[in-house]
Amino acid sequence: MSSEQKPVLYSYWRSSCSWRVRIALGLKNIDYEYKTVNLLSAEALSELKEINPAAKVPTYVDNGHALSESMAIIEYLEETHPEVPLLPKDPVKRALARQIALLVTSGIQPLHNLKVLQTLNKKEAGLGQQFAKQFVVEGLTALEVLLKQNSGKYCIGDELTMADLNIPPLVYSANRFGLDLSAYPTVNRINATLAEIPAFIAAHPDNQPDTGLNA
After folding, report:
1. Locate the GST C-terminal domain: which residues (predicted)?
2. Among 37, 61, 75, 134, which residue's Cβ finds the most Cβ atoms within 10 Å?
3. In this structure, are residues 174 and 181 in contact, taking their beta carbons and an 8 Å threshold?
4. Is the pLDDT of residue 203 over 50?
């Protein structure tokens, strides 16, 4: 791949992990090519495996390097495109931004991803959704406390950070599971604020080339 070529994001419209990377790319004004991976297609996953051994989205290809795992990609974008920072300069705030991001990406989202739901539903119909709801509620409860302690306009004061990239996908998933979000006013307030930002609007699942695939 030549240095003049656009980076490529292998994505799926409703993937929480892909969504947060799309937001980061938008905030940093990075022009990229979007390639759809149908997560319910064995053939599509087999093709992706040739690029990413884990056969997961997002996979980000830049200058011949295939990168996976959303937080690793976002950290890479932060280092290669620092002009629109997603981490505060203050070390405590930087740690808090990462803490909130990892709470979602490591402590909540993996427990309701597609493979988990499929595996549990094979054991008992509806078990996956029941399992997911439990851990999303627990995660949102902890997140609400953290945001009350640290938020301003955004998750960490009035500075947009990588923590904020995780809020819309989490709220979207919670709504898909039919959860009552009235107990999380700070989460809802921040989510509503983020929904007005162009990069967040452009990254929304409803605005992707593959919107509605497998819906």
Report:
1. 90-213
2. 37
3. yes
4. yes
- The predicted-structure confidence for 134-181, as pLDDT tens digits, reads as follows 888 999 999 999 999 999 999 999 999 999 999 999 999 999 889 999
The Cβ-side half-sphere exposure at 7, using a 13 Å CA radius, reads: 22
- For 91-199, give the CATH class: mainly alpha
* Structure-block tokens of residue 168: 């819309």
- Cα(76)–Cα(168) distance, rounded to whole angstroms? 21
Cα distances (Å, whole numbers) of residue 115 to 16, 54, 61, 111, 120 = 13, 13, 24, 9, 9
The average pLDDT across 43-67 equals 97
The Cα–Cα gap between 63 and 116 comes to: 33
Angle at 197 between CA 182 and CA 5, to 5 degrees: 130
> Token pair of 188, please?
């809802």
On whether the CB atoms of residues 158 and 5 are closer than 8 A, the answer is: no
DSSP 7: P
Contacts for 157 with CB less than 8 Å, ≥ 6 apart: 88, 93, 150, 151
